[in-house]
Design brief:
The chain is an alpha+beta fold and about 375 residues long. It is about 45% helix and about 15% strand. It contains 14 helices and seven strands. Helix 1 crosses helix 10, helix 1 crosses helix 11 and helix 2 crosses helix 8. The chain is elongated, with a radius of gyration of 25 Å.
Length: about 375
Amino acid sequence: MLDNPTLAAIAVRLVAWHTAHQRDLAWRYAPPGRRDPYRVWISEIMAQQTRVETAGAYYARWMAAFPTVEDLADADLQEVLKLWEGLGYYARARNLHKAAQIVVAEHEGKLPSDRNALLALPGIGEYTAGAILSMAFNQPEPALDGNVKRVLSRLADIDRPITDRAVLKTLWSLARALVEAAPANQAGACNEAIMELGALVCTPTNPRCLICPVAQSCQAAANGVQQERPVMPPRRSTPHYDVSAGVIWQGGRFTSPLLIAQRPQDGMLGGLWEFPGGKQEEEDATLADCLKREIDEELAIEIAVEEEITAIRHAYTHFRITLYAFHARHIGGEPQAIGCDAWRWATLDELSDYPFPVTDQKIIAALKAERASEAT
C-alpha cells in the first residue's frame, strides 16, 4: 500500500501537472479551493454520468437562468426540468431544486461548509460533499469518483473487484490520505488533478503511462498489470423491454391537440411529460393491445390505435428498451390522472413548452418531419 511520503510526493506532482495541463472548462474560472460553492455544486452534479463536453453547454445555460441559489430555489420545477432536458438522470435536477430551497430556508442562501450539513441536503453524497468542500472551501476532504477510483486502484495495484465493500473503504482511505498529504492550501487542486489525470491520462483502456506524472509511483505499472486494473465485476446481462407509446389525437391528425401525460414526481423521469404508454406484458398479444391497456390503466380512456410512427432504441443504466410510437385516436372517456400526475391536450407546436425525455423528443421530431412531409 502507498505510504504517506509516497502520497505526499504524488500530490505534489499531480498539482504541478494539473497547473500545466488542465482543460479550460467553464466552471474553472478560479483556482480550485477558491470557487463559488454554488457553481462547484452545479458543475459536479451535471458532470456525473455526463460527458464534460455536454455538461459545459448545460452549465452555461443553467448559470444564465439561475445564477444564484436563490434564483434556483424560486424557480418552478417545470422550468428546472426543461432546462435539464436531455441530460438524463432527472432526479439530479429535482434534488438540486429541493436542496436549493432548503439552503435558502435553513442556511441563509449559502451552501454550508460543514460535511454533515452538506450530506443532509437532497442529492449530495460523499463524493459531491468532498468536491464542494475541497474546490470551494479548500478543505482536505476526499472526492472519490470513477476516475479517482481507477487511478488509485492502479497506483496501489488493488487486485480485488472495485465494487467490493472492503475495496471501496480502502479507496476512500487512500483518497483521504492523498488530499491530506497535499501541499498547504492545495486540497482542491489535488482532488481536481487526480480526477483530470483519470480523464486524460489514466484512462479505462490504453492508459498513457509514458506521459503520466506519477508513473514512477504506480505499483500496477511496475508489475505490468495497469491494463488489468481496476478489477471489474462480471457484467450482468441487460434486460430488454418492448414499450409502446401513443400519440393520441383529440380530433384530426396534426389539426387538433394531442394528449400528453406527466410522469409521477417520485419515479423514474419524475415530473417529465411523455406520450402515454408502457411496457408490453405477456398478456398483450400485440403492441397495439399493450397500448390500449396502458392508456386505459393510466388515463381511463378508450383509443383506436393506428399506424406506427417510429421505433426508438434507448439504453438506461440497468435496462434497454425499444419504444414503438403509434398514432392513435381518442374514442371515448374523459382523461383521468390515474397512473400519472397530470395530463394535457396540447398542439404539436406547444410541446416545446414542456420537458420531455430524450425518447419522446425523438417522437416529436418524427411527428414534425411527418407533418412537413404531408405539407409538401
